[in-house]
Structures are given as C-alpha cells and as structure tokens.
Amino acid sequence: MKKLLLFSAFIVSFLSFSQVPQGISYQAIALNSSGNPVASSNIRVKLSILDQTANGTVLYSETQQKTTTAQGLFNLIIGQGTVVSGTFNTINWGTNSKFLKVEMDVTGGTNYANVGTTQLLSVPYALMAGGISGSSANESIENNQFSNFAFADNSNGVVYAFNLNTNTWIPVNAYADDTLVGSNGNFAFADNSNGKVYAFNNNSGTWILQNNAFAGNTLVTSNGNFAFADNGNGKVYAFNKNTGTWVLQNGFADDTLVSSSGNFAFADNSNGKVYAYNKNTGTWSFVNGFAGTSLITSNGSFAFADNSNGKVYVYNKNTGTWILQNAFADTTLIAAPSNK
After folding, report:
1. Coil, helix or strand for 104?
2. Quick check: helix, strand or coil at residue 88?
3. Using the 8-state DSSP alphabet, how is residue 154 labeled?
4. Is 64 exposed, middle or buried (0-12, 13-18, 19+ CB in 10 A)?
5. Residue 237 contacts residue 210 (beta carbons within 8 Å)
6. pLDDT for 170 beyond 60
7. Mean pLDDT rounded to a whole number for the chain
8. Would you put residue 80 in left (φ > 0), alpha (ψ -120 to 50) or beta?
9. Which of 2, 143, 186, 203 could form a disulfide with 113 if both were Cys (CB 3.0 to 4.6 A apart)?
10. Helix or strand or coil: residue 7?
11. Element (H, E) at 258
12. Residue ranges per structural domain of the chain
C-alpha cells in the first residue's frame, strides 16, 4: 500500500484560499503505482497543518473521504473535514511559516501513506482577518508585518540583532566587516578575519555559526535564506531558515552563485558540474554540464545551456530534479515567470 501511494507525491496541482466559512480549497489527482489515475473510487485523505517547519508541531489535523472522478481528480476544503486534533479557526496564520502535510489511503480506509508536505507560501486574507477579533483584514495584515534590525559594533567585536518576536537584542561576538545583510527578518554576515559566517534565524531567535569558512564578498540572500561560496576551499554553503542549518556542497562557484525564491544554484565550470539547492528538501543536487555564464533563474527554478555539448537543462524546484533536452540554444535562454 505504501508503495502505491508514494506516486501521489507528484499529484498536488494547486492550493487556493476560500472565503468565509474558513477553509482552504485543495485539488489533486490520485495515481496508482503504474502512474494511472485511481478512477471513480472512494479514497480517504488526512490533512495536517504544521507550524514553522515540514516536521513542525501539528496545529490542526483532519480526515476526509472523497470519491475520485474518472480521471482520478478530487476536491475538498481543508477545515471542513472530521477533526483529528486542533481547531482550524484558531490557527494564527500571521506567525511562523505553515506547512500542509497530506496522507492518503486510496482504498478509503485508515492505512495512510505519506504523500508529501508542502509549504503554504501565501497567507489567506480571510483566514487572517477571522483570527483577530475586532480587526479589519488590512489592519490584520499590517499588524503582522514587521522588520527586525541588526548592526555591527566592530570596534568591540559584537554584532547585534533585534527580534520583534521576543522584543530583545541578541548579540554574537564577531566582526561583520562590510558583509552584514538581511532578508525576511533574518540576517547573515561573514567574519572573514576569523573564518566564520553567521546567520540570525528569526524563528529560533539565535545566531547559527558556520565555522572554518570564508565568504569573502559572495554572501547572497533570498526569501530569508542565505548562501555563500568559499572558493578558496572549494565549498559552497546554503542557510535554510526553516531548518536553521547550514548545508555544505563541495564545489567552486567562481562568480556564478545565483538565488531565486529561497533556492540557490551555481556552476562549477572547472569540474563540469552545475548544482542547485532546494529549500524544501534542504539538499543540493547536481548535473554534469558546463553552464558558462548562461545560468538563469525563475521563481525558484533554474536553467542553463551547455552549447559545447548540445544540451539544455532545467532544474524543477517542485520535483527537485534536473531535466535534459538535447539541443543547441542558439538564441539567448530566457525565462517567463508566472504568478500562477
């Protein structure tokens, strides 16, 4: 049964937020082990809202039984099922990241297999407004916007971050030089004189150290995550705000390190490899190829043309894989971002 449901990890098609009564509209297709739709069948789905990380605290959980169409399609409203734990209407959407975990039994029973966990990247206005008594939607959104602050006292070798969540200053003994950067309430800097790089995590309210590393001036930001290339030692690091950890990839990024929607990529042209870091999986993946200066970004995905070998590659952030097309990109490789 678990083998059957693992194919469901590829079926989530979209999430959209409904109006009052509170709920999140969810649509997907159930597939069997052969990749065929589970057609016209009763299935049971378990849905859980997790706090802060993909393995975080379960704030709310429910089950729903649905009948698929001839194409295996089913629709439901999260928040209107049979409650397992928690209260949907009391979820505070304005604090921390939220993740949706989906489990399923295609026979309609309760032998659930994990389909996957996806971050909810948008805060539904109606849900946020409904969760704060006496406030309009605009007031609710404004009250949940914030900016943390940071500065370096290099004369005394201390860097401070102010966290609005805890209303406190958090110091770390280090020198920031001119490398202090911020993104989505988080901060990072390189203490190159001592071979240390630090990231401040708003969720945990702590500074996280990457020791024995030199960032130079390569520190880049993206949606609260950070990355840098220690080219002197042939290492590239990415900081994930959700897990609060630095993740190492051996390689030389030269001047090719790029970022998009919290993900990162770089070309190690000296060794003929191109790497991408995925914030959802927290891992680096690579493909053999020469990107030159053609590595481009779009909504967390990446692409490049290896014209010397007649190949074009795309890194898909949703599947976490590189996809090859044998061809020569005679014209410039372009991207067409979409908000949908």
Report:
1. strand
2. helix
3. T
4. middle
5. yes
6. yes
7. 83
8. alpha
9. 2
10. helix
11. strand 258-260
12. 2-143, 149-326
